Amino acid sequence: MTPAPISRRRAIILGGLGAASLAAGGTGWIAAGPGVGTSRLEPADTGAELHQPPVLDSRDGRLQVELTAAAGARLGGVDTQALGFNGTSPGPTLRVRAGDELEVRLTNRLDKPTNLHTHGLRVSPQANSDNPFLRIDPGTSFDYRYRIPPDHPAGTFWYHPHHHGMVADQVFGGLAGALLVDPPLGNGPDLPVVEDRVLLVTDTTLDADGHLLEASAMDRAMGRQGELVLVNGQHQPTIPAAPGATQRWRIINGCVSRVLPIRLDGHDLIQVAHDGTFLPAPATKDRVLLAPGNRADVIVRPTGTGRYPLIADAVDRGGMEGMMGGNIAASGPVTLATLVTDGPSVTAPPLPATLPAEKTGGGPTTARRQITFQMGMSGSGMGGMAFTIDGRTFDPARDDQTVQLGTTEEWTINNPSPLAHPFHLHVWPFTVLATSDGARPVGVPQDVVLVPARGWARLRIPFTEHDGRSVYHCHILDHEDAGMMATINVRG
Ligand code: C2O
Ligand code: CU
Fold it and tell me: Which residues surround ligand 2, an ion (CB under 5 A)?
């Protein structure tokens, strides 16, 4: 039964109250909004059960896939002008094992150049592997081939376009997908989970015709935040569970700029992995903080029966108060999804006391470097601002850091600016030693760290594997596109 359009529309304009139940039986999206020029496409399938993106699994040591990037993706169950891989946003989940070969034929049916980054994978940055300097023009295809080392950590990674200047638009448009590395057979920890789910969080804004909204100069300067926050392309889906039935949620922050402090109403989150590597032991937390690009694998053990929202708490990424009469780098709390528990209780089996955390690699520190993120006024630039690292905007032809393969370095990322910037380094994960806000470091290698506003983060980076050139940058993708990115050349 489809409810009358007028009541559905009203229910959605009125917000959460009642909208979920009314819309649960419907499909499609509804134009709603305060007035001419500001109307938006809003999801009508709010509250539908969470789907998993299609999974493409490796066999006999290899996974061969074709990914076509194009506009006209299905999002929230219906056709929009959002971007997708193979017609959906997110794209398929790629699932490989350590030691596998991953081959991706990327076809560009967009109207702008693109390419592909395997975020967090420890693979070669050269040639047709995880090479961020490649440019795949509209109407062309490119064959990527990634050799995943046999000792690669088993965990949650993701892929997204990385062509400088277009990254924020393309990820905001919907181009992202999960990339899971499984342990070699029989080598993983024994996690007693009955469901293993990907929760890829993205945000976007679509106008009433289903077209992507252009970001303003100020949106780009602060890092755009979409009005719709989606999980696997769905708006506030429900996640069914039996009380006690243990689930593993692989939460990926695929938002362009949003920082997600995530909590589950009425439950602790038991974190087992961060950025694709296991913690030494399950860690019980009331909140898990994910900067753009970060991932957390959490164990959820539903208690009782009821509805428990998964919430991204309000966050202030830094003070730009006084500009434009408000702080647009702040965001209110958002409901990502709702855990719905029902049925007879099952007894949750115990979790392992320890997990196969990685040993900290590398040797003694051979060099220390200072890296500085800056936002400054400029005559031209985005919204009259320049986004630089060490005073320079991105130049793919310049080597900004040269490092000897096999060494271990300590980098301090300075951020004198009034906005927090997430630092991301490709290929070579780092351990956070300390941050200026005194937060307790995760303790295992990671690939994105939020550098506090007017603060710093100190990192230990073992360059033990993979030579070649790659990049480090701010993972507020609007900042990266504006030039807050630099190159690193690791010489073998
Ligand atoms: Cu997730 Cu260089 O990016
Ligand atoms: Cu930034």
Answer: 421, 474, 476, 479
